[in-house]
């Protein structure tokens, strides 16, 4: 497997300024991602796609505050403001994002379990099918970018490395939430997993 694919993580309205779970400067990733898209013949987009009753929404737990943590059946789970609800404008891709992808992976659509990674739900066992798709297409290397660095990009990159893909995260085509030091922890975890860190300029 020698091919390289671009994996664009969750560049959706709710993660951009004005959205329900806005990442600071989240929309700043759109232009560099579009530039990268022109370089890679195989492109995959991921899309958070939650039902309104999703268990990761703080509103669905009486008295729970957003950004608090509960213990789910599969481990610790951050409770988020409701976001990227199926079929809503917030779940749509940013209007300026290049979306002519080979595949769109929708994740988090099961109410009882969240899904940060493009490869697995948060139980780290239930696959999305992306790994098999990429292998059948002859892909061995992945370039990952999007939102947010310390959650969905992080989990996707670490899983990619564990699955045997050569993984590179484009730091200036990502933005992070940085919840209680989560951004620094994410970069360290990715480094330990063997994920490469690069800039847009290095890849163009």
TrEMBL record:
Pathway: Cofactor biosynthesis; nicotinate biosynthesis; nicotinate from nicotinamide: step 1/1. GO terms for molecular function: metal ion binding; nicotinamidase activity. Belongs to the isochorismatase family. The keyword Hydrolase applies. NCBIfam families: PRK11609.1. Its EC number is 3.5.1.19. Pfam families: Isochorismatase (PF00857). This is Nicotinamidase. InterPro entries: Isochorismatase-like_dom (IPR000868), Isochorismatase-like_sf (IPR036380), Isochorismatase_Nicotinamidase (IPR052347). Keywords: Hydrolase, Metal-binding, Pyridine nucleotide biosynthesis. Residues 4-201 form the Isochorismatase-like domain. GO terms for biological process: pyridine nucleotide biosynthetic process.
């Amino acid at each position: 497997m020698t091919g390289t694919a671009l994996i664009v993580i969750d560049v959706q309205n709710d993660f951009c300024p004005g959205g329900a779970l806005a990442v600071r400067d989240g929309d700043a990733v759109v232009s560099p991602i579009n530039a990268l898209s022109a370089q890679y013949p195989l492109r995959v987009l991921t899309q958070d796609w939650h039902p309104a009753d999703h268990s990761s929404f703080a509103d669905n737990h009486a008295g729970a505050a957003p950004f608090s943590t509960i213990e789910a059946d599969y481990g610790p789970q951050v409770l988020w403001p409701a976001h990227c609800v199926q079929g809503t404008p917030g779940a749509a891709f940013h209007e300026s994002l290049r979306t002519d992808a080979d595949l769109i992976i929708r994740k988090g659509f099961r109410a009882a379990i969240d899904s940060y990674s493009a490869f697995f739900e948060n139980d780290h066992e239930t696959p999305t099918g992306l790994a098999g798709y990429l292998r059948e297409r002859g892909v061995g290397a992945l370039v990952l970018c999007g939102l947010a660095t310390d959650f969905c990009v992080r989990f996707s990159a670490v899983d990619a490395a564990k699955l045997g893909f050569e993984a590179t995260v484009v730091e200036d085509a990502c933005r992070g939430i940085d919840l209680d030091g989560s951004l620094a922890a994410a970069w360290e975890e990715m480094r330990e997993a063997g994920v490469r860190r690069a800039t847009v300029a290095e890849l163009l």
